[in-house]
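Extended Data, record Asp/Glu racemase
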Amino acid sequence: MSPAQLPAQLPAGSAPRPLVALISATPASIPPVTAAFADAFPDAVLWNILDDRLLPEAEQRGGVTDELAQRMGRLIEHAVREGADAVLLTCSLYGPVTAALREAAPVPLLPPDGAAFDAVLRSGHRRILLVASNPASMNDSRRRLLQQAASEGLQVEVDAVVVPGAVRPALEGDQEALTEALYSALLPALAEHPDTGAVLLAQYSLAPAAPALASELGRRVYSSPQAAAELLHQQLTAGVR
């Protein structure tokens, strides 16, 4: 799908409560983003669109190919055509797909972690610990975070920790096991770099552990679902993109 193919406007008769389409590549992303909206934007009506082959196929093909990017584009187009007032991708690996479509979209179209990137870079911390459960998501998120920092003239150090042991508890919704897996992996990294000011969870599926990690680690822990819900609440209630 090209930007020109996005519908020019929403269908008439849209619901009075804003409809937010959440496009996910794993069911593990849905509970964290639902909880974030319940807290930050309870008036939103959430519409979950799930393609659980997007991640496995990206792994098989060595990344997000043009074909997979176009597939995500078609899901975005579907959401807009069917009346979504905003579209939020919840898979960090597919976040770059929004770049080519965002300006042409008639509604707010958010990458998964754009709001979280803004928040952590505005925080003033100059060493950030980025956490993901797989290398592909880590590499993509770290590259984009550093690019954004450079574009804003900010000097930041972004350390990376990949925690494969977080995958299963995230999928199973086991928040205690998820927190323990992340905590155990983060302690050595924080000991090596005690000047780390903030932790950023790169994936929505890791977000349920954020409050407990912040308490146990004694550092601010940023999660993408909460930041995105807060931003969309601001945009949709103020009528701005």
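Summary. The radius of gyration is 17 Å.
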